[in-house]
Amino acid sequence: EDFGQYIAFLTMGPYQGEEFQEMFNRITINETSFFRNEPQLEVFERRVLPELLEARKGVKRLRLWSAACSTGDEPYTLAIMVHRTLGIRLGDWRIEILGTDISERALEAAQAARYTEYSLRSLSPIVRQRYFKPDGPYALLDPTVKSMVSFDLHNLKDRVAAKRFGTWDIIFCRNVMIYFDDAMKSQVLRTFADQLAPDGTLFIGHSETIRAAEAPFEPLPIPHGFCYRKASVPRPGP
């Protein structure tokens, strides 16, 4: 009936887990689309991805994490880019792409891989024809690309849970940290630093920045990239 009672219900009620999830489903912002901020994605596909594939050609394994992935548009976009970059070499590689979000409802939509025209508004005709099949007013994602991505429920505040995902070569977390206070932002960034490979890359939103005091990251001097590497650790003197 009032805010105080609702907070008490969330923290002490017998159904607090279910109620928290319903709250997350209602308040999370699911504004996303395929190939969102294409200039940045071109930096990923044309510069960062080829360098990583070259660096990993010995193990032929690449791991990408789309944090706060909403309905899956972003991790599936990354999968399309990896798919067309590797081409016939894809079968030789172990590609692991994980999308995580705090909303079960968003993840259910992601796993269905069934999208509206609005989600596909930035797609070129070639990409649309190659990777999507019409399904009434919707479009179904190509099964091969869909199989490249897995999803999991995850709260970015949970550093312990993030560790079970292992180490990542690429982390995308775009247009999310603008909603965090400074303490939460710093905590999330330090989690990313812990889970990112030494030569891995973090991509953030175009309206976001990372200060050196918040986490050990250095910006890459690439126009439109909005991407960071872990800061180099100074070597001890003689």
Structure, described:
- The chain is α/β, with parallel strands linked by helices and about 240 residues long.
- The protein has two domains: about 1-30, no CATH class; about 35-230, Vaccinia Virus protein VP39 (Rossmann fold), CATH 3.40.50.150.
- It is built from nine helices and ten strands.
- It has helices at about 5-10, 15-25, 40-55, 75-85, 105-110, 125-130, 145, 160-165, 180-195, and strands at about 60-65, 95-100, 115, 130-135, 140, 150-155, 170-175, 195-205, 215-220, 225-230.
- A seven-stranded mixed sheet has the order 6-2-1-7-8-10-9.
- A hairpin with a 2-residue loop joins strand 4 and strand 5 (about 140).
- Helix 3 crosses helix 4.
- The longest helix has 18 residues, at about 40-55.
- The chain is globular.
Task: Fill in the keyword field for this structure.
238 residues, alpha/beta, Rossmann fold, 2 domains, 10 strands, 22% strand, disordered C terminus
Task: Tell the overall outline.
Answer: globular
Uncertain residue ranges: 19-29, 234-238
Strand content is 15-25%
Strand order of the largest sheet: 6-2-1-7-8-10-9
Using the coordinates above, name the CATH class of the largest domain: Alpha Beta
Amino- and carboxy-terminal Cα gap: 67 Å
- The sequence of SSEs as H and E is HHHEHEHEHEEHEHEHEEE
Question: What is the radius of gyration?
Answer: 19 Å
Q: Give the number of domains.
A: 2
Percent helix, as a range, is: 25-40%
How would you summarize this macromolecular structure in one to three sentences?
The chain is of the alpha/beta class. The protein has two domains: 1-30, no CATH class; 33-230, Rossmann fold, CATH 3.40.50.150.
